[in-house]
Amino acid sequence: MALLVTGADGYIGWPLLLRLARQFPHEDVIGVDHGGRRTWISEVGSDSFLPIASMEARIEAAHALGFSNLQLLHRDLTSRAEVYDLMRDFAPRVVFHLAAQPSAPYSQLSADHAAYTQQNNTDITRNLLWAIHELQPQTHLVITTTTGIYGAPDLPIPEGWLEVDTPAGKKTKLPWPPMATSWYHMSRGQDALNLWLAHFQWRLSITEVRTAIVVGPQTTETAMEPTLNTRCDADFYFGVVAHRFAAQAVLGEPLTIFGAGKQEKPFISLEDTVTSLAAAAALPVDGQLRIFNQYEEAVTINALAEKVQDTAKKLGIDVRLQHTANPRVEREEHRLAMSNGAFVQHLLPQSQQSVTEALSEALRAFAQQRKHVATLQQSLLPLNERSSTTTP
Ligand SMILES: NC(=O)c1ccc[n+]([C@@H]2O[C@H](COP(=O)([O-])OP(=O)(O)OC[C@H]3O[C@@H](n4cnc5c(N)ncnc54)[C@H](O)[C@@H]3O)[C@@H](O)[C@H]2O)c1
Q1: Which of 27, 30, 45, 72 is deepest in the core (most CB within 10 A)?
Q2: How far apart are CA 227 and CA 268, in angstroms?
């Protein structure tokens, strides 16, 4: 039996690979990645804010620590031939599909970046769906998309499906129409539609996990030794807002809140993200398309900044909050009402780490690596506002 993880060199994929190897010691755990994230981040003049080892060194360290059932292979999953070979070679019981170009600001950089992001992301998902259909229809596909698919509507957001009344007085369920607000997020909306199509045509077993903003520098496994660190980005393009605030705090900079900061966003800790994805391995292979909203807490950006400010104070760091012009087109006062009942019931009955705890860990980790973080200070800004910059 094998478990396959795509995007296994990534922020979530690497800790998931380790978790699966530990949780399923009698199965082969195969990770694949083409290392693209490492290239994209250097293209925007940044790096992981916590130092990370090469793919080879990571695997060596993992094997030395007893994770002997895992491998990490270099593959580009936009190649259909590579995906079909993987499916033939390993016949995985579950595919955890995390590979994507996941940055909205990166996808907004130019027409080329938008096209690259959409082609990369939708090609991989479509390749996997066809490979499962043609070679391995009993494989369970677990895929992380994003809560960003929903946009910021004036409606309570359900878990994937919109229930509407039919003219015959009955109820019917429709897939929520993607109302994403970036080229990246829309690529995942397109993926979600293709999942629906593949399920409609072939009745594959698919679990779509709509992931919220993930916070935290580590999980139980990556914390075992520094070579197992997962990447943690805080730059303008790839860093999530919580990590950007944590880096600004450690560097004594004001926390820059884009716009009014009243928009509520969904968050989850990295530990809980990995725990709940691993739990999906136990869902039945019954030809269902399940959709979960993988989030724990909705917080306004202002409240998030205040959380970072309070936590920083406990570490002896005083930080100011500063509102700046919003570089994103978004609804700055949007209140989030998003269901996550099925997610809590089936994938995360008990949280292992709150968002606030994950935020404190990020602050502590960045403070310990302050020298390294300081070398990346310029990358907190967009390329055109840096004092010395390389244009992509
Ligand atoms: N981190 C978050 O806050 C967050 C939020 C919402 C959704 N997600 C979703 O979770 C998943 C993982 O996100 P992440 O933050 O770990 O991103 P990440 O960039 O760290 O990891 C994705 C990995 O996929 C790899 N990859 C991309 N294209 C590939 C290709 N063609 N072939 C092989 N490998 C390829 C990249 O090299 C990278 O290592 C993505 O699907 C993303 O959309 C993440």
Answers
A1: 30
A2: 24
Instruction: Find, among 38, 62, 68, the residue nearest to 221 by Cα.
Output: 62
- In angstroms, the CA 234 to CA 240 distance is 6
| This prediction's pTM | 0.97
Q: What is the DSSP string of 57-73?
A: HHHHHHHHTT-TTEEEE
Contact criterion met (CB below 8 Å) for 64 and 105: no
CATH class of 2-380: alpha beta
* CA of 163 relative to ligand 1 center, distance in Å: 30
**Torsion region of 71: left, alpha or beta (phi above 0 gives left; psi -120 to 50 gives alpha):** beta
Sort strands 161-165 and 171-175 into parallel, antiparallel or unpaired.
Answer: antiparallel
Listed by start position, the domains of the chain span 2-380
Question: CB under 6 Å to ligand 1: residues?
Answer: 7, 9-13, 33-37, 75-78, 98-102, 120, 124, 144, 146, 188, 211, 213-214, 231, 240
Q: For residue 346, how many other CB atoms are within 10 A of its CB? A: 16
Lowest-pLDDT range of 306-320, 324-338, 344-358: 324-338
H/E stretch holding 56: helix 55-64
Dihedral (CA of 126, 73, 149, 381) sign:
negative
Q: Among 52, 209, 214, which is best to mutate for testing ligand 1, by the most ligand atoms less than 8 A from CB? A: 214
* pLDDT, tens only, 350-369: 999 999 999 999 999 999 99
Kindly give, in sequence order, each residue whose CB lies less than 8 Å from that of residue 375, ignoring residues fewer than 6 positions away.
none
